[in-house]
Amino acid sequence: MINNPYFNLAAEEYLLKELDCSENDYAYIYINNPAVVVGRNQNIYEEVDLKYCKSENIDICRRISGGGTVYHDLGNINIAFFSSSQMNKVNSYSYFMQYLFEFLKLKGLDPYLNERNSIYIGDKKIGGNAQFTNKNNILSHCTLLFKSDLEKLEKSIGSPFNKIESKASKSVRSSVINISELINVNSINKFINELSIFFQGNNRYRVVKLNEQSIKIINDIYISKFESFNWIYARSPRCKITHNDGIFEIENGIITSSTITKFENLPFLPQGQLLKYF
């Protein structure tokens, strides 16, 4: 299993374009190295503590679907479902959650979707959902907190800036819990293996296994797009950041103007921006 978050986000885009879902739906299951993944139309500076993520070697990524910001690590399970594009499936998360929920119920859990299509057990969130559709297929992907580092999740998601003005889609924070705290299973690999067998035991899903040719193509996609400054940062909507003694206007991921009275204790912003001291 490849744990590179940029690779797996590129794999989702590749599979969305290439899979023939006329006869079967598909599921691609993976786990990532530590990463914060923002939605397609979100503002990086509003959603992520960039300085903390840099200090903890947490990758910053952007996915092709909308929705809110999520934290991934080796204790977080990601499932990408692929199906033929039909209007009755768009925003129908219950369609894609049917067999996953059946599996979780076999484990003694009682999952449900809240009004924002997040996955809950009782009053605690264990995962989220988002979708993206092209003319042929629909991608509906979800996260499952199995044994994730909830302290790093809390610290990495959220802006350190005093004030940000933008028109970007904003995340809604929720109280979360790991599945491993609720069931008597501690091995994420065992859990994923059982989930994969369960999916393949019904007539709807086939579980995706990437071949060498697909991996080569996906590598090219993630390097050229998903790991690029233009995709991760420049897609952030124009915004104005106010922090301590500075005001910064940012467009296309670049600081276009600034007013600064002190140069100390400034938050981290990516390399390649106009102010050399960041």
Structure, explained:
A hairpin with a 2-residue loop joins strand 7 and strand 8 (124-127). The protein has 8 helices and 15 strands. It has a 5-stranded mixed β-sheet with strand order 9-10-5-1-12, sandwiched between helices. The chain starts with a helix and ends in an 18-residue tail after the last strand. Mean pLDDT is 88; it is low at 271-278. The protein has helices at 5-18, 44-47, 50-55, 93-106, 150-156, 188-200, 212-226, 229-232, and strands at 25-30, 35-38, 59-62, 70-72, 76-84, 111-113, 119-121, 124-127, 129-133, 137-145, 163-166, 205-207, 239-243, 246-251, 254-260. By secondary structure, it is an alpha+beta fold. It has a single domain, classed as Bira Bifunctional Protein, Domain 2 (BirA Bifunctional Protein, domain 2).
Q: What does the secondary structure layout of this molecule look like, with pairings?
A:
Elements: H1 5-18, E1 25-30, E2 35-38, H2 44-47, H3 50-55, E3 59-62, E4 70-72, E5 76-84, H4 93-106, E6 111-113, E7 119-121, E8 124-127, E9 129-133, E10 137-145, H5 150-156, E11 163-166, H6 188-200, E12 205-207, H7 212-226, H8 229-232, E13 239-243, E14 246-251, E15 254-260
Parallel strand pairs: 1-12, 2-3
Antiparallel strand pairs: 1-5, 2-4, 5-10, 6-7, 7-8, 9-10, 11-13, 13-14, 14-15
